[in-house]
UniProtKB/TrEMBL annotation, chain A:
Protein name as annotated: ATP-binding cassette domain-containing protein
Domain ABC transporter, first and last residues per copy: 14-239
UniProt keyword ATP-binding, yes or no: yes
Source species: Streptomyces beijiangensis
Keyword tags: ATP-binding, Nucleotide-binding, Transport
Family recorded in the similarity comment: Belongs to the ABC transporter superfamily.
Domain of life: Bacteria
KW 4Fe-4S (keyword) present: no
GO MF, any single term: ATP binding
UniProtKB/TrEMBL annotation, chain B:
Alphabetic keyword roster: Membrane, Transmembrane, Transmembrane helix
Superkingdom to which the source organism belongs: Bacteria
Record field: transmembrane: 21-40, 52-70, 96-123, 135-157, 164-184, 211-232
Protein name (Swiss-Prot/TrEMBL): ABC transporter permease
Organism: Streptomyces beijiangensis
KW Membrane (keyword) present: yes
Keyword Membrane set for record: yes
Lineage: Bacteria, Bacillati, Actinomycetota, Actinomycetes, Kitasatosporales
């Protein structure tokens, strides 16, 4: 049930302006602004407790912002008529009663949404839950509950999908299936906003990245920009590390020891370090350039490694 | 609205809770008839005989409360609000109507059991027999009390949002606060939902308040609390 969904000139699928959400004295989301482009898969990243789920709840209208606004297709979410055909949402937990079967859960949602009953069978097949559909949700594994939550989000074949930590609990096959599904939806003009605390895992799926930490925006751009923004380091192994460190410092670089006994050099490229060593008479046993991984970038932006 | 009601009705009948309440209601109805009509000695007055037919509206209050509060405990209220094509207040209203309809079914079941079991037993008792008018009034009063109690329970459940807390509060009020209040002012108790439901179901008789008056009192409480629940639902966050 895929169809071409986008047209030139569409407003941003989702636009968030100065969103703030406070619970008493605690600020969960702090002056957050971003847009989610139509036909794009946008990753919403941040460490645990960064405010991702709270922000998503405000974006879909489940939580009322303390300040700021969220728009879906240009309409303020506070005045938006909830419609499973426009917005499919999966926010953990899956929102199914443990004593109800998966099929009954979806049947009730299909009825509430005014969708034909056959959609229940279609989405159960899509997420691979046909055989478990008559079992009570309380007996489901975490991965099966995730699939049921995704089935509920997909029930209306929506233009926009908002998924909170959708890969949690999925096995590698499930993750690959989800990646393919989301990419196909985006290719057909659909829009996906998905949150995750695992940037490396989701990087293969997303086009754009919104990164938050402690409720505040720390990065908003394409995944390619983020990959290229990582500063590379030169890894050196030498018996004269102290001498080389002084030479590097004099040339404007910075050094630190890595876990394996090597020296990590920032601020100079591999050629500059090799020349410095040659001029200073430092014998290098090994030299290599290492580009920061997305995980390194993530930690760098969020301070995650220090927590 | 009909699609919302259909969805909410599917929810109310697809867990074992409805079965538990049906069994509980029937068991109570049988016990009540046996205790009143068999074990209470001679019943020679009409109000005493009517008591054997009385239902337990608090059971339906619990039905609505546990079900509606469970929507928040199990986070099923949020997905419903996200797909309902109407605002949250309307979705909650549909849920309350669904509990009223299923409450009517549960109430009808227990009433059939009560009447079917009690009438043959009461025919052996001395004094005037219950006329068809008496029986009709008791049945109607019980059904009205059941439906209004289910609505009130669902509205309270939406406000309290915790089944355990709701049940504890309800039981404390019914079994501790109301009896204490009745010691102070019996006519005051008649104006509470519990007192009015007791009169309406004929569990309580010989009071200053008529069945119709009790119906209006219970309806007024039900409407007021339902309105508050709908207004609050529109304003509060959903987990």
């Amino acid at each position: 049930m895929t169809s071409s969904r986008t047209s030139v000139g569409d407003p941003a699928a989702i636009r968030v302006e100065g969103l703030t959400k406070r619970y008493g004295r605690r600020t969960a989301v702090d002056d957050l602004s971003f847009t989610v482009g139509t036909g794009r898969v946008t990753g919403f990243f941040g460490p645990n407790g960064a405010g991702k789920t709270t922000a998503l709840k405000a974006v879909v209208g489940l939580a009322r912002p303390t300040a700021g606004r969220a728009f879906v297709r240009g309409t303020p979410v506070t005045t938006l008529r909830p419609d499973a055909r426009l917005l499919g949402v999966h926010i953990e937990p899956c929102g199914a009663h443990p004593g109800r079967t998966g099929r009954a859960h979806l049947r009730s949602l299909a009825a509430l949404a005014g969708l034909p009953r056959r959609r229940v069978g279609e989405v159960l097949e899509l997420v691979g839950l046909e055989e478990a559909a008559r079992r009570r949700v309380g007996k489901y594994s975490m991965g099966m509950r995730q699939r049921l939550g995704l089935a509920a989000a997909l029930l209306g074949d929506p233009e926009i999908l908002v998924l909170d930590e959708p890969v949690n609990g999925l096995d590698p096959q499930g993750i690959r299936w989800l990646r393919t599904l989301l990419r196909e939806r985006a290719a057909n003009g659909g829009t996906v906003l998905l949150s995750s605390h695992m940037l490396g895992e989701a990087a293969q799926t997303v086009d754009d990245v919104i990164m938050i930490d402690r409720g505040r925006l720390v990065h908003n751009g394409t995944i390619r920009d983020l990959e290229q923004s990582g500063e590379s380091v030169v890894v050196v192994r030498t018996a004269e590390a102290e001498r080389l460190s002084r030479l590097v410092a004099a040339a404007g670089g910075r050094t630190q020891r890595d876990d394996g006994g090597g020296l990590l050099i920032e601020g100079l490229d591999v050629t500059e370090v090799a020349r410095l060593a040659q001029r200073g008479g430092v014998l290098l046993e090994e030299i290599a350039q290492r580009t920061a991984s997305l995980e390194d970038v993530f930690f760098g932006l969020t301070g995650g490694a220090d927590r | 609205m009909s699609h919302l009601l259909r969805g909410e009705l599917i929810k109310t009948v697809t867990t074992r809770t409805v079965l538990g309440f049906a069994v509980g209601g029937v068991v109570f109805a049988v016990l009540n008839v046996l205790v009143i009509a068999v074990a209470s000695g001679t019943l020679d007055k009409v109000p005493e005989k009517e008591e054997a037919l009385a239902g337990l509206p608090i059971l339906l209050l619990l039905w609505g409360l546990v079900g509606a509060a469970g929507e928040y405990r199990h986070r099923t209220a949020a997905p419903a609000a996200l797909v309902g094509r109407r605002d949250r207040g309307v979705v909650l209203s549909a849920r309350i109507v669904a509990y009223a309809l299923t409450g009517l079914l549960l109430g009808t079941l227990t009433t059939i059991v009560s009447v079917g079991l009690a009438l043959p037993l009461l025919s052996d008792q001395p004094g005037p027999d219950l006329t068809s008018g008496d029986i009709g009034a008791v049945v109607a009063g019980n059904l009205v009390a059941f439906v209004l109690s289910a609505i009130l329970g669902a509205a309270l459940g939406a406000l309290i949002r915790s089944p355990v807390l709701g049940v504890v509060v309800l039981l404390i009020v019914n079994f501790a606060v109301v009896p204490l209040l009745s010691g102070v002012s019996e006519s005051g108790v008649n104006l509470t939902p519990f007192g009015a439901a007791g009169i309406l179901s004929r569990m309580t008789h010989n009071t200053t308040l008529s069945m119709v008056g009790a119906g209006w009192v219970l309806a007024a409480w039900t409407v007021a609390i339902t309105l508050v629940a709908v207004i609050v639902e529109r304003r509060r966050d959903l987990a």
